[in-house]
Amino acid sequence: MRFAKNLVLTAKKSRFKVFTVIICLLPQLTTGSPVEATTQQDWSRWELRVGSLNVWALKYVSKFTSERMPRIGTTIRDRQLDHVLLQEAWTESARQLIQVNSGLPYYHYFHWPRTVGSGLYDLSKFPIRPVYFQPFTMNGSIRRIWEGEIFAGKGASLTEVNAHGLLINFINTHAVARHSDTPSDTVEDKYTPERMMQYFEVMQTVIERRTSDAFIVAGDFNSRLTHHDYHFWKTLSSLEGIQIEDVGSPICTACPNIYRPSHINGGQLDYIHVSPRLKLSQFNLDFAEPFDSKSGRKLYLSDHFGFVAKIRVNEAPPKGLSQRVCQRFQSALVYLESRLVEHLGKTFNPPEIELPEVFKGIQDRFCKSCRIKDSLMKVRYYQYALSEMPSTDDKILNLRKQIKSYCSLFD
Fold it and tell me: What is the predicted pLDDT for the residue at 182?
């Protein structure tokens, strides 16, 4: 009998404990767990301040670097930028002067062997993880050695940062210049096919190497809005970007200043583009104010002006455009192939001679027709992936998925 009473008392206590647990859990069952609530991000308040500038820091060539670089750094600090993409930061001293004065603790420079470097330098408020560097296959000509392009390791770099809870990819790039022997208002120059190929390799980096759907592509494109190569880029990428230059407008990033002939308006050559996951909420031309040098002379920060942009999460991204984006991408590749074939026909093709192993790297770098052929192979590989022809090649199948994944960003 005593055993039975103890059993009933134990059962009552157990029911009380269960009831107590249910009462304690009731707010979480009705309103959602605290863990879930804290992980939900309010994207309407998310914002990133991003800058881009060609700093013009070439060793022995650029002027007043010891005065300009610290001032570029303090301008970055004064603008309270979260991340900056710089081009032509060729020297270690220039990079140090900018970084120390910028107040940004994290930075990364992309070196490239057997060149003077990429010139691509990222600084950030957030820890930077370098992901990839894509050197351009075509970059200048040995026959125009005085231009210096052949010695530059230009390309497209990709870094990632976790900014306020969102993983962001930054693609920094610097395309081949016109070198002033062609007026800036003409729609093409001798490097137009080459620049188009470089834009393709920027897109190749985005498609194959990105680690996030939220990405920013910025840099010195060396192409105006009216140029054929920039039209090609827009067709190829379908990305939203800063466009400030209208036909006949005096607004420019390659503007007349003390480093450029006073009569030459180079127009807008520099851009910031964003993926559909993001939007440009505000932007303005920046790094444009002159300052007093130690000698009392008015100096500009660089031979380019740059941009500062406020970027936010796009809470109303485009819908139903993936098929059109893929079609535009495919048509751009067809056009690029035709331009490269035409370019190859105008280029001296050296006889195929088996060289010793030690000379092969030199041949690949300075043989222009070799680099055009390599470029054609890359473009045709993408065309084959887009053709949907049956394939058992894992690389082709994976590339098809990557291209479709890019197009689906616009759905």
Answer: 74
